[in-house]
Write a structure and sequence with these properties.
It is a single chain. This protein is α/β, with parallel strands linked by helices. The chain has 2 domains: 62 residues, Ribosomal Protein L25, Chain P (Beta Barrel); 149 residues, SPOUT methyltransferase, trefoil knot domain (Alpha/beta knot). Helix content is 28%, strand content 24%. The chain is built from 5 helices and 11 strands. The strands form 2 sheets. Strands 8-7-6-10-9-11 form a 6-stranded parallel beta sheet, with helices on both faces. The chain has a 5-stranded mixed beta sheet with strand order 1-3-4-5-2. The longest helix is centred in the middle third of the chain and has 17 residues.
Length: 229
């Protein structure tokens, strides 16, 4: 039997009786129609999990363990803002694959130039729901948008669709991948990245849509680091 999984605040799991947040309580009792005695898994977001039995307005912890579903390689995706809802696809599917964190950036060719607090909150909700669905032990963090320069840190890899040199699959697995907007990176941005110690790499002979790149690249890296072995 599949156990439903829910992320809750860390402080809610300190005792052996967990008080469920109102949103989780509504999902459990109102939507799923679960009753006393049914079991769920609660996740405090620190990589651990607790098997709980519903009892009144709380759930009783029966067993605690480490979530064994997290990728061994912690990968951060730096994603340029995309137009429309495309960035929601990036967050959802990359979270399912095992990406540990997201940083959002505005680049020269970004069509979207800003992100509202509402949209950022929605992205974080998407990450949480995707993490629950894929049975992860953490919810990837999503930092508010910054300029590209703040994300150009040494030992990162920037993916450039017209790069004719080494491909991503031939590099040591980076901890950070930098992915551009629909129009790609400008020559000036590529030069700035190189000056900052960022490696430039390609992702094969075909041109991918920007919202596809993060998922494809994450799969390449995490498969090489043993996550799909």
């Amino acid at each position: 039997m599949t156990l439903h999984r829910f992320f809750v605040p860390l402080e809610a799991t300190v005792d052996d009786r967990v008080t469920l947040p109102a949103t989780v309580e509504r999902q459990v009792r109102g939507v799923l129609r679960m009753v006393d005695g049914d079991r769920i898994v609660v996740l405090p977001g620190d990589g651990t999990q607790a098997l709980c039995r519903l009892e009144g307005d709380r759930c009783v912890v029966e067993e605690r363990s480490v979530a064994a579903t997290e990728a061994r390689h912690r990968l951060t995706i730096v994603q340029a803002l995309l137009k429309g809802d495309a960035i929601e696809e990036v967050v959802q599917h990359a979270t399912e694959l095992g990406v540990a964190a997201f940083r959002l950036v505005v680049t020269e060719r970004s069509v979207a130039r800003d992100m509202s607090a509402h949209k950022l909150k929605r992205l974080r909700t998407i990450a949480r729901e995707a993490a629950e669905q894929s049975e992860r032990g953490i919810v990837p963090s999503i930092a508010p948008p910054t300029g590209l320069a703040a994300a150009l840190v040494p030992r990162s890899v920037l993916l450039y669709e017209r790069h004719d040199g080494v491909g991503l699959a031939r590099l040591d697995a980076p901890e950070t991948l930098i992915i551009g907007p629909e129009g790609g990176f400008s020559r000036a941005e590529l030069a700035s990245a190189t000056s900052a110690g960022v490696r430039i790499a390609g992702l094969g002979p075909r041109i991918l849509r920007s919202q596809t790149v993060a998922v494809a690249a994450a799969a390449v890296i995490l498969s090489r680091t043993g996550d799909f072995a």
